[in-house]
Write a structure and sequence with these properties.
Layout: H1 5-14, H2 21-28, H3 35-45, H4 51-56, E1 73-75, E2 81-83, E3 128-133, H5 137-146, E4 153-159, H6 163-173, E5 180-181, E6 197-200, H7 207-215, E7 220-223, H8 231-244, E8 248-250, H9 258-268, E9 275-285, H10 296-299, H11 303-319, E10 325-331, E11 345-351, E12 357-363, E13 365-376, E14 379-384, E15 393-400, E16 403-409, H12 416-429, H13 438-457, E17 461-462
Parallel strand pairs: 3-4, 3-6, 4-5, 6-7, 7-8, 9-12
Antiparallel strand pairs: 1-2, 9-13, 10-11, 10-17, 11-12, 13-14, 14-15, 15-16
Helix pairs in contact: 1-3, 7-8, 8-13, 9-11, 11-13
The chain binds nicotinamide-adenine-dinucleotide.
Length: 480
């Protein structure tokens, strides 16, 4: 490897000092191989007195990337010659604080979206430990895998009625056998110091009991939606958590999902003027009449509390205001084995302040369809797969002069279950109220009760006026 005297002298002149990235690139940009120089710089950078700069945000590590020298080779154990270049660490800011992201050498122009920031996971021993209650579809298919994308949360205990499931799932996720509990032993979570949060993932009718029993263990509670089967149960759950001085959050994952948050921001900032009308649908198909979702006592209702709730809660989240009146129409095919106890379809309108109308439909007997469109004065925003676990597709339309501009917006995605759990962990670690507390679930329950009443009585039902914005929500989550 050749190196000019000029470069060598320059580098030696800077030894013991910081060589700025600009200076270095200037040198490297002359096409000089800098392997030797890089070694010199590396020893300068790692020398004494640099640790303080780690927190000051200056480049704290790194040897600038050397230009690949085609003459450099590596001889493999078998004697083969392999083209190589020197492995180095380009300049980076590495703050000592784990919550601050490492800032890597930038290389993209601002013509394209920027990547990053680099994730800042907490060390495992600092993460909030969760006990998952109920090992059904949601826990096994979504929540436990999502912990892999969490930065502040980890699974540490399981509660189930199936010893076989407990044994197998505990092995798969590295949970100690002594941290597996039956439903009867649920309260023993109190003595498990690793558990700081309990996540209730049981059929709807069990939410109230397991939140109230869970609160008595002194652990914080994250509860799946719908919060419960009645507003009265919701009130008891909120009171039990307040009395036990534990936090209660309802798992409204959509409020932590990046695309829905993007639409919320665009609606609230009046990107296309004031919103006027929302059309929302969440429909799917089911098959098993024996499943709890088709039993009124266990599910509380049919399509409405299970999936229609997403249309209701997300519209409230997008607008920030509360409906003042609902009008609903419900249907179940006569004699259909799935819909003897719960509704097959619910279609309803909600009147919001300022004349905004939200028109929703939810169905248990159609191919899946999950979208909404917010029509504003000067444009619309359409989110396909709005309530799905992934695959959100955001389109907008507005006019510019004679042109109709129709855009598809893409933003970085994030596992919404991980974002939701990490928000709750953040609330526990920083002792602040959750963004979607019990009061948010209670408000939805009150509106759903009005929707059922309207469908039953065939007339609009008024709701108490709730002035203000985000009245039932806690502080905004930090960016996921
Ligand atoms: P599931 O039927 O797959 O699992 C329910 C679990 O509860 C099972 O492990 C089951 O053994 C246990 N269980 C305890 N007592 C039971 C009883 N009496 N009858 C039936 N099961 C009983 O259900 P799931 O789809 O995992 O839903 C669980 C909860 O999560 C529900 O409240 C549901 O609304 C909610 N959920 C939320 C989302 C979301 O996206 N946030 C998605 C699916 C389900």
């Amino acid at each position: 490897m050749s190196i000019t005297n000029e470069l060598l002298n320059t580098v030696l002149r800077h030894a013991g000092q910081e060589v700025s990235r600009k200076e270095f690139l200037n040198l490297a940009g002359r096409g000089l191989a800098v392997g030797v120089a890089a070694g010199t710089l590396a020893s300068c950078h790692s020398g004494g007195g640099k640790a303080a700069e780690a927190t000051a945000g200056t480049p704290t590590t790194g040897t600038p990337a050397a230009e690949v020298d085609a003459s450099t080779t590596y001889t493999a154990p078998g004697g083969q010659t392999v083209a190589s270049s020197e492995a180095v660490s380009p300049p980076a800011k590495v703050p000592a604080e784990v919550s601050q992201p490492i800032e890597l050498e930038a290389w993209k122009s601002d013509v394209d979206p920027q990547s990053g920031p680099v994730p800042t996971p907490l060390p495992p021993e600092q993460r909030v430990g969760y006990a998952l209650v109920g090992l059904g579809h949601l826990t096994l298919e979504e929540l436990l895998p999502a912990f892999g994308e969490c930065k502040k949360s980890k699974p540490v205990a399981l509660v189930s009625g199936s010893p076989e499931k407990l044994k197998k799932v505990a092995r798969q996720y590295g949970i100690k056998p002594e941290s597996c509990y039956s439903y009867q032993d649920y309260e023993k979570l109190k003595d498990n110091a690793e558990v700081q949060a309990i996540y209730i993932v049981l059929p709807n009718s069990l939410h109230a009991e397991y939140v109230i029993r869970g609160a008595s263990t002194g652990k914080h509670i994250l509860c799946e939606k719908p919060m419960a089967n009645s507003a009265q149960e919701c009130e008891l759950m909120i009171a039990a958590c307040k009395k036990a001085n534990v936090k209660l959050m309802i798992a409204y994952r959509i409020q932590y999902e990046p695309y829905n948050r993007q639409v919320r921001d665009m609606v609230r900032s009046r990107k296309f003027g004031p919103p006027k009308y929302i059309e929302a649908q969440n429909s799917q198909s089911s098959a098993n009449p024996a499943h709890w979702r088709h039993k009124k006592a266990l599910a509380g209702g049919g399509a409405l509390p299970d999936i229609g709730l997403y249309c209701l809660n997300t519209s409230r989240f997008l607008l920030g205001t509360e409906p003042t009146e609902v009008f609903a129409y419900s249907y179940s095919t006569p004699g259909h084995p799935l819909f003897k106890e719960v509704e097959e379809m619910m279609s309803w309108q909600m009147r919001f302040p300022d004349g905004v109308i939200v028109n929703c439909v939810t169905h248990y007997n159609t191919h899946d369809s999950r979208f909404y469109r917010v029509s504003a004065e000067r444009g619309w925003l359409h989110l396909d797969n709005a309530y799905a676990y992934q695959g959100q597709r955001l389109q907008t339309s507005h006019a510019e002069g004679p042109a109709k501009m129709q855009n598809q917006i893409t933003i970085p995605t994030k596992n919404q279950f991980a974002a939701e759990m990490d928000h709750f962990s953040e609330c526990i670690l920083e002792n602040k109220p959750p963004h979607t507390p019990g009061e948010e679930g209670l408000q939805d329950q009150r509106i759903m009760e009005a929707i059922y009443q309207s469908a039953r009585e065939g007339r609009p039902v008024k709701l108490p006026a709730v002035p203000g914005t985000d009245v039932f929500r806690g502080p905004e989550p930090k960016p996921a």
